[in-house]
UniProtKB/TrEMBL annotation:
This is Lipoprotein. PROSITE patterns: PROKAR_LIPOPROTEIN. InterPro entries: Quino_amine_DH_bsu, WD40/YVTN_repeat-like_dom_sf. It comes from the Bacteria.
Length: 328
């Protein structure tokens, strides 16, 4: 009798343990959207997973302070740099978390095609750029605050705000050598996005100017395009056009595919804090300060720019929504 009870208790314990594990690890394939909540004053963050209908299907608590970015990894997982710490939180496709120690204060991490580019706010007047490729790690110290970066087969392009000098530059870094090949002065500042479109590198600027920069990758020179609105922020190549969002405004500017002229402007029904796209839809995230809602995620049909879905994201204590990702 005692032996029977012992076996019964053991089986029940294993079943409970299995259930707990299944709750803790929610595979990302079940989700369509991931939204990061974070606290900038203490180690408190959470990743909310939503299905294609916009309904919450799980939440993963993260002990980290200041996560402002979600980056999709090459392995179909997610990367979340802790801006006010020294760690990179990695979420596997199976929904399992692990933490990787980094240099202090990671500003951003970007990964694609076997290359990882990161920046760290290591000193007051200069930051560390790190390039990892082919199992090799290269680091270089660059003046200014490194806001964002992108790359092609030869170079990494890094936007830097030289805060004391009150100006900005574009660093063109040789990927193989890990050395600066060119420093390009810019007449704009506060870029949140760099994107290569054709033979051009487009550079946004969230300062008060109504223009953005375009770096010709073949001729190695800068030109500027005037825009109808200030604070261009994110670049979205759409079919034979380029859509530009404007920081915290409910408008977009549409450029021709060569980024030579403004074709028209578009309007949406909410201010744009973050924007992502898939083949058919534009997803726009707005922050909210209401008692019940931390943000609104609007889904728009790209053909007519009609809002087809509005997802209210609940408030979670003192945490604020900072970014989201579209999952496969």
């Amino acid at each position: 009798m005692f032996r029977f009870r012992f076996i019964l208790v053991l089986v029940l314990g294993l079943l409970l343990l299995s259930a707990a594990c299944s709750r803790d690890a929610l595979p990302l394939r079940h989700a369509r959207l991931a939204v990061i909540y974070t606290n900038a004053a203490k180690k408190e963050s959470a990743l909310m997973l939503l299905d294609a209908k916009g309904e919450a299907i799980g939440e993963i608590p993260i002990k980290a302070m200041g996560i402002f970015q979600i980056e999709k990894s090459d392995k179909n997982g997610l990367l979340l740099p802790e801006r006010f710490g020294r760690s990179l939180i990695i979420l596997s496709p199976e929904g399992k978390l692990r933490t990787e120690q980094t240099k202090e204060f990671p500003i951003f991490v970007k990964q694609r095609d076997g290359v990882t580019v990161s920046a760290f706010n290591t000193t007051l007047h200069s930051n560390t750029l790190e390039i990892v490729q082919n199992n090799q790690r290269k680091q270089l110290q660059l003046p200014g605050f490194l806001r964002t970066a992108t790359w092609d087969d030869t170079y990494v392009y890094v936007f830097s705000s030289l805060i004391e000098a009150k100006r900005a530059v574009l660093y063109v870094v040789d990927r193989q050598r890990g050395k600066v090949a060119q420093t390009v002065p810019l007449a704009i500042d506060l870029a949140d996005d760099l994107k290569i479109v054709g033979h051009d590198l487009l550079i946004t600027s969230t300062d008060e100017q109504k223009k953005m920069a375009i770096y010709d990758l073949e001729k190695k020179r800068i030109r500027y395009i005037e825009l109808p609105f200030a604070k261009p922020q994110y670049i979205l190549p759409v079919a034979n056009e380029i859509w530009i969002t404007h920081k915290q405004q409910a408008v977009l500017t549409v450029l021709d595919p060569d980024a030579d002229q403004v074709k028209r402007t578009l309007a949406v029904s909410q201010p744009i804090f973050q924007a992502k796209q898939d083949a058919q839809h534009l997803y726009i995230l707005s922050q909210s300060d209401s008692a019940e809602t931390a943000g609104v995620l609007g889904v728009y049909d790209k053909k007519h720019l009609h809002q087809i879905k509005r997802i209210s994201l609940p408030r979670k204590g003192e945490m604020r929504i900072q970014d989201f990702a579209l999952l496969p």
